[in-house]
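Worked problem 6 (solution included).
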Amino acid sequence: MRRVWLAAVLVLAACGVEQQPKGGGIEGDGALARALRAASEETGVPVELLAVRGWQASRFAAQPLDEGHGEGRRGVLGMSPAAFERAAALAQVTPDALAADVTLELKGYARLLAELRASPDWPGWAAAAVVASGVDGLSDTFAPAREELLLGLAGGVEVQLGDGERLTVHPVELGFEVLSSAAQALTPPAPGEYPAMGWYAANPNNYLAGRPAAPRYVVIHDMEGSFWGSVSWFQQANPYQASAHYMIRSSDGYIVQMVGEANTSWHAGNDYYSRASIGIEHEGYASAPSTWFTEAMYQSSARLVCAIARKYGIPVDSQHIIGHFQIPNPSVLASSAAPGTLAQTQATPYNYGGISNHFDPGRGGTGWRWDYYLGLVKGCVDAANGVTAGSGSIACQGAVCWATATLKLNNDSKPVYLLKQNLVLLGHLGPGAGKSTRFDAATKDAVSALQRAASLGESGTLDASTATALKTALLAKSYSNVPSADVEYGQTSANVTTLQSALTRLGFSVPATGYYGDLTRQAVLDFQTRQKVPGGDGAVCGSMTRMALAAALARGLGQ
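Solution. The predicted structure is:
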């Protein structure tokens, strides 16, 4: 089996010398802090170990397991079913009673670790915790799972619970150096390059060799479980045949790859999308985004998606970099239907999320910071392409919208796209040259033509005086054939009727009902796709779409 082995290495300060646990203790006087101290005092298990394990396993909030991830772990300490049964027996209660009381669970778990540990040093305690999670010593995830726990002990943890309790776990002195694969997250790659990562091959039962064409989408998931438990689950021939291409850890953004990009990972609950996409799983739970979806995770994931997007030419927008919750449910919609918009997934949630109606990484788009995340990816792609956004913005007056200063050669942004549509509308730029957000040489020539017509210096840069000339030229035209304001899915208005008539004239036939429903949304999306409107998802006919419509109608496109 091919392996890129970047897992952590433990180097003992003195070979053969046992390092006794020396911790910094915990700070806090809430119910959890008292329960941790009581379990530690009764059993001798270091209180820091109990606290860090509970935080890493569940953020001290047991979660229901998502179908398809099947780790089978129970409680806030992430025990395997067998370990949970044993912990209950050691606590002299039933498993259900153990699950219902975190104080009992901590005591039962601590007694279990005291029974499992092979040596009283930190590696011995950490190994016992990993075994209690169901990972045996022969598994290739055993060492890195143990080392993640040791890293947490070495770094300390700030715990913030849902009820407001705060708990500080002070760093411990391990007595040996910890060198970790997590260090790769601290050394970002050059923009557009793949980050360093580990390799843990998924079971061949869980993916298909090859794919019919290059990926068109990236699908964002959350694990609804822990990092190494999910990796282990995909290494097994699990009953759902589930897997993912990449897995990303919450604490530090560490990445492992499990399926090669040239192969089809079964992750979408929709065969068409599984074959057409790359799936990325993120550690944590959609119900607790603020504690699991960390800045380190966002940054690491964005760098990975940046590299994927550049490699395959995948647009950085909400119709190509999507959540699992956007994938059509093939029992309701056509498998190859467009990804659901936020409005659609909120209005008809059971139409999306694949065959099992999953909602990760957050139902209806909540939880995951989509605008921020896509901005990170876009910024990385731009940096890799050597372009900058420029300082341009967008202004509107009635039906007409235009780009404002300053935009110049090699800028890449949404205002550049709008500027190009303005220039197409005025006849300074050919229609085919308007379908991008890049300020290229043709755009520079078109701006120079606008400046020449307005008796301005021909710099080819959209500065303040050129923006004024652009506004004057645009306002001199009539816009009765396009909506006079933004319209969106679910609205009923005269502007929607105008939109429907414009779409029909351009070859995207839709009844002029005045209601912005599914037919209009699909027609808008088809038009946005043809014109490459950035961020177009069919749900909103905004300023750039309206000006693209006006430009297309002015140039007779589609008639």
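Discussion: Confidence is low (pLDDT under 50) at residues 1-19.
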